[in-house]
Q: What sequence folds into this?
């Protein structure tokens, strides 16, 4: 049996991107579905970079769910832990785009957020053997909004602790998934106590910690070994292995920012799998790890969709050869 070094748990879905950038929800005439969902994006990006990954999540027993699972399988992601719900549909989320490629989530069509299969991930069906030889668990916060999947995340955290996996949380705050922002913050703050690495945007850092300084955040989270704060065109701020730094943003022609943060996470974990966490003790290697992650994220914005745009290691190396600061 082949073992995956990274387990990505959470949502998989179709991002339905507006075909007419700059228009409101009412004005959009047509939509194009792209496979997405942050943990699934990370799993695919990792495999494309050369690091084995498994995806744990739930889809509907429908054509959308089947096509998403098939896509992951074709890329090389381990999908043995994907659950298929007999009645709940696979999630679709509608995404508006600005003229500059930035996104705005516009809801779930005619369905309520609680109706989709990804909210029904069963903790009892998470295979323990996946955790025996893995190195990292990647989770987000979207699925904390739903009781069944919240329990599944708790189970995954137990298994990660039992088998000594490092845990990376991508905060990925999306209010559209939640009914109560105050409740969301409580759940997220609880999860933060159990993770080793945190990736969050400037806005998320301000919301949760009232600061965007990664060193300050690290000192408030006793268990954290690394904090990554992404800040769009201002680049990335990091605190890794007691090294604090900033990586300027790469200049690329942005087509679609969907999945950029997920590419960043995958690039970061790929480097840790290649060089080991101990490498972060070197300020030079910590910076190089952040630069690589930023390059993967930047390249993901140069094509539409999250998964289709993800780069190969050769593309990343070629990009860095001409763009490294």
A:
């Amino acid at each position: 049996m082949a073992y995956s070094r990274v387990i990505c748990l959470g949502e998989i879905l179709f991002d339905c991107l507006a075909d007419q950038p700059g228009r409101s929800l009412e004005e959009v005439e047509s939509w194009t579905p792209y496979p997405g969902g942050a943990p699934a994006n990370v799993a695919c990006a990792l495999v494309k970079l050369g690091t084995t990954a498994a995806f744990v999540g739930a889809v509907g027993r429908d054509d959308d769910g089947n096509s998403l699972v098939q896509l992951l399988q074709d890329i090389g992601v381990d999908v043995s832990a994907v659950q298929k719900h007999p009645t709940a549909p696979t999630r679709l989320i509608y995404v508006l785009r600005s003229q500059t490629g930035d996104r705005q989530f516009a809801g779930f069509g005619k369905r309520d957020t609680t109706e989709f299969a990804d909210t029904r991930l069963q903790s009892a069906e998470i295979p323990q053997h996946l955790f025996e030889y893995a190195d990292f668990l990647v989770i987000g916060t979207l699925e904390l909004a739903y009781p069944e999947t919240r329990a599944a995340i708790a189970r995954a955290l137990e298994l990660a602790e039992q088998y000594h996996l490092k845990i990376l949380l991508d905060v990925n705050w999306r209010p559209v998934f939640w009914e109560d922002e105050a409740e969301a913050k409580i759940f997220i703050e609880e999860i933060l106590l159990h993770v080793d690495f945190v990736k969050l945007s400037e806005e998320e850092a301000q919301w949760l910690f009232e600061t965007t300084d990664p060193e300050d955040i690290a000192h408030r989270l006793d268990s954290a070994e690394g904090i990554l704060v992404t800040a769009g065109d201002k680049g990335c701020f990091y605190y890794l292995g007691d090294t604090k730094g900033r990586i300027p943003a790469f200049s690329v022609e942005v087509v679609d920012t969907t999945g950029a943060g997920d590419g960043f996470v995958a690039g970061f974990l790929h480097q840790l799998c290649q060089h080991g966490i101990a490498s972060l003790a070197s300020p030079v290697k910590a910076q190089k790890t952040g630069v690589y992650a930023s390059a993967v994220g930047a390249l993901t914005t140069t094509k539409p969709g999250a998964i289709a745009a993800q780069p190969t290691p050769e593309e990343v190396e070629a990009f860095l050869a001409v763009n490294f600061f």
